[in-house]
Amino acid sequence: MLSRPGLPSFDYVRAGSHDEVVRLLVTGGPDVRLLMGGTDLLVRMRDGVVRARTLVDVKHLPGMRTIAYDSAAGLTVGAAVTMNQLASNADVRAHYAILAEAASAVASYQVRNRATLGGNLCNASPAADTAPAVMVLGGRLVLCGPEGEREVPIDEFFLGPGKSARQANEFLTAVRLPPPRQGARGTYLKLGRNREGDLAVVGVGVLGSPSSEVPPGYAFSIALASVAPVPLRATAAERLLAGQKPGGAAFAAAAQLAAQEARPIDDVRSGVAYRRAMVESLTRRGLETVWRGLSAASSGRGR
Amino acid sequence: MMGRQVEQTRVVGTSVPRVDALEKVTGAARFTDDLQFGPDLLFGRVVRSPHAHARIVSIDTAAALQMPGVRAIITGADTPGFIGLYLRDRHILATDRVRQVGDPVAGVIASTEQAAEDGARAIRVEYELLPGVFDPFEAVQAGAPLIHPDLGSYDVASFLYPRPGTNISHHFRIRKGDVDGAFGRCDTILEDTYRAPQIQHVPIETHVAIARWEQTGEVTLWSATQSPFAQRSMIAAAMGIEPGNVRVIGNYIGGGFGCKAGVTMEGLAVAMARRVPGRPVKVRLTREEEFFCSFVRQALVAKVKIGATREGKVLALQVEYYWDGGAYTEYGTNITRAAGYSSTGPYFVPSVMTDSYCVYTNNPTGGPMRGFGMPEIHWSIEQVMDRLAEKLGMDRVQFRLLNCIREGQETVSGMTMHATGLSQCIKRVAKDIQWGEKEPPSAPHKLRGKGIAIMWKAPAMPRNAASEAWVVFNEDGTFNLGVGGQELGQGSFTVAAQMAAEVLGVPMDRVRVARPVDTRYSPYEWQTVASRLTWSMGNAVRAAATDARKQILDLVGRCWGETPADLDIRNGEVISYKSERSVGLDKLVICGLSMPGDRELIGGPIMGRGRFMPTYVTDLDKETGQGTHGMVHYTTGAEAVELEVDTATGQVEVLRVAAAFDVGKAINPELVKAQIEGGVVQGMSSGLFEALRLKNGEPLNSSFVDYRIVTTLDAPQEIITAVVETAQDDGPWGARGVGEHTMVPTAPAIANAIYDAIGIRFNEMPLTAEKIYLALAHKA
Hints:
The complex is a heterodimer of chains A (303) and B (780).
Chain A: E1 11-14, H1 18-28, E2 32-35, H2 41-47, E3 54-57, E4 67-70, E5 74-78, H3 83-88, H4 90-95, H5 97-103, H6 109-112, H7 117-122, H8 130-136, E6 140-145, E7 148-153, E8 158-160, E9 163-164, E10 171-177, E11 185-191, E12 202-210, E13 218-225, E14 232-233, H9 235-242, H10 248-261, H11 272-302
Parallel strand pairs in A: 1-3, 2-3
Antiparallel strand pairs in A: 4-5, 5-10, 6-7, 6-10, 8-9, 11-12, 12-13, 13-14
Chain B: H1 21-25, E1 42-48, E2 54-60, H2 62-65, E3 70-75, E4 82-83, E5 90-91, E6 97-98, E7 104-110, H3 113-122, E8 124-129, H4 136-139, E9 168-176, H5 179-184, E10 188-196, E11 208-213, E12 219-223, H6 228-239, E13 246-250, H7 266-273, E14 281-284, H8 287-293, E15 296-297, E16 299-308, E17 314-326, H9 332-341, E18 351-360, E19 366-367, H10 374-392, H11 396-403, H12 422-432, E20 446-457, E21 467-473, E22 479-483, H13 492-504, E23 511-514, E24 517-518, H14 533-560, E25 567-570, E26 573-576, E27 582-584, E28 593-594, E29 601-602, E30 607-612, E31 635-646, E32 652-662, H15 669-688, E33 694-695, E34 698-699, E35 718-724, H16 746-758, H17 769-779
Parallel strand pairs in B: 1-14, 12-13, 15-19, 17-18, 22-23, 32-35
Antiparallel strand pairs in B: 1-7, 2-6, 2-8, 3-7, 4-5, 9-18, 10-16, 11-12, 11-14, 13-24, 16-17, 20-31, 21-22, 21-30, 25-26, 26-27, 28-29, 31-32, 33-34
Helix pairs in contact in B: 10-16, 13-14, 15-16
């Protein structure tokens, strides 16, 4: 069926409080959807994929658009913070550069003026560009529901395409990231069919930091987008790196493991073979990039 | 016709600013969807077939008619006539059967677009599915489902040859020389098959049309069209209206690239408006509809066999083209013809056998797109020439210089080639891309390569494709220039104004282009297609301005007792080189002049008229495709590309493109440069990214989410443009068209550069990163 020429009609409610949002979610059921940037929701309503009678706007509620950084507590990003806000925030760029990089990889500049971090995560798309970054940074999602607030670790948040641990009567208010690991370096590599504006064919987030907890002295986290029903931690690759001296051989082996961990599908964007190969290519490239940063920092300290 | 001497010019040949620049950059320019019709306006939406091939069993409109806001519903019973440009093979609404996904089946007129949509969704159509065929090669095999059983009864242009009882709607043949004998004399022979998929034009502005039936029986159609006059005649013929009663008004166009030529959806608005007389009805395509409900570029399967001597002279060529024309080939048939009579590419080949078939399938309807078949056939020609050069151990540039067509040689269709600067273009791009020098790649995981491709293209049109123009003056000495060609971003109004200003000796700000183009008031123009306006409309404009100039100089000469040869118009004043007298145009163009002494008035309002029709074009023989002057002329050019391939991802980065085209005369060099840059980017987009993915005729990626096109970040880092000017004897100031041509060589030049970089050939567009990576992995 072809898309409609415009949006179907709906009611717009500007929520007055967190409680009102929850109340509307409880009473309205599936007819009620939360409006963040609308960059996915409105398109899907036009396409007829989402049928909502009421859109509840929550962007203006306290804290929703705030970015707060504290060296002891870490970073709290309001769910309605836009991608461009995130990408240009000085604290994010200084301490969580991979998140800024991921935010600026989403769609195109105009869309990033509207698209929000919360929307990107709550859609629970396997292709969410910010998911790998939040995963390797150890993010927790703050959900507000009838019983008040609860926090869910991002590794437990994604359950399937479009499905998350967020209950129907809850909404995401913020994403919390722990204080940055000392000396950490990260990168998010996105492969689209062209350079700007595409959904990720494959996305790879890599974070590395000096660590006394693992024998090689460096810990690496790897997360993958668009290659499984959910954004995925490459745990086997991470474990391998926890036991091997960082460098070309270890990175190549880890990248191979990550490719094996991926469970990609064939679709109009790409095929299984290419996606799997790209997990390997980008993981390796990401590890090498991160390692160059870590090595430069350590030799800098040595002088 | 004009001679080839170089003329001194003041305005022609200079990069004056576009006449529409200010209103376009400020957003003041009005496009069709901007027009306001007040509360009378109704909206139409269309019920479209979800099936690729089916018989319509029944249409139940009862529920829809009860929907709020719904005013009327039309079905195929309302549109029994046939419509089509060269072959009348379609109805405005499907009557008995649908032949593609998206075929229009019913139309709903309602008070709002949403109400019309809701009404459309309430219509129940029962279909009986028919077997479909989705590949042009399969569609020509015996036993393939017949898509147009009535092909033999359709009206068709005299130069097209449908084969009733098959899916072939046109078969164009070239039989030139002794091909078998020539192959026997070849030392090297190559055979290969190349494919190009359907792509779409993706103009920023989707199709939109508003129609209103007057009580007088007149119909007004406001449409975003490249073809106001063709729409007038085509819609009139299909709906049984006198052409004089159809008035088409064409405002600025937000990009066309061919998909707004002829008629695609505009008849729907007219058919709907007939049911609500006096009320304007607006129909506009969504982006999804735009992807497969107007025109797509036809897909092509090209089988090529070519042979050359060991010295590198190409002796023989045998080509079969199977064009996937889709459900209706009313326009695409002529692409098949153009491809056939250009099937050597810009090379001299003495012996040629070409069979170019236009084939019905149940895929989206093919139609004109920038290049009109040339990008598709050059995709095969320019790669096979590269392969041949390599097999012969020759440099790819030298091989092209050796074989490219030259003035005086006979073209594939038997015409004597006119003067052309193709060799200069080849040499220029080779120099600009530093051919023969190999830079190291920018990173260890990258490979770098260079490629070249050359092209030719003639305007494809019927022999009687004509242009008219007029010049009328205002009291202040400014003048209105009437043209019927459309401004779709290419700068046609600007170059027309430049030409008129040149002839009439006035500054640019004295010229007003009379717009919008309105078939009631504007002079005739066949269509804004084929890159023909600068040349054809330009000839008419020049003639109209020359006519006005002659009247003015005759008038002043008579008044002053001087011969017109001693007079000139400079800066808006008529001057005499003999008597050194002068008089402003504002003093004479409306009210005439007083004779000295007896005060007798002479003259009156000046009106210049001009027209052009290429009456010298001849037919091509049905059996051999030969004729002495089968097309007006060929524009030629070359592009060279330097790029890098990322071997870890397959991604291609186009670093530089050098482009040179022989435009005869650049009326406005900056506009030529803009055409080249735009064409290179669009050509690159088709070469690397674009394909309408079809599964049994159903598009899988009919939105920008999954139909990717080049963005500014993908575009080449540098485009080096050059203009060669070998004057064309039938062009104004020697000009030829240069709109479509610029995208023709880009994709094959990229393919050739990728081969240079990684040693792998790809026969099917587009060259996605995935395709390249997997080929690299396979090779390793």
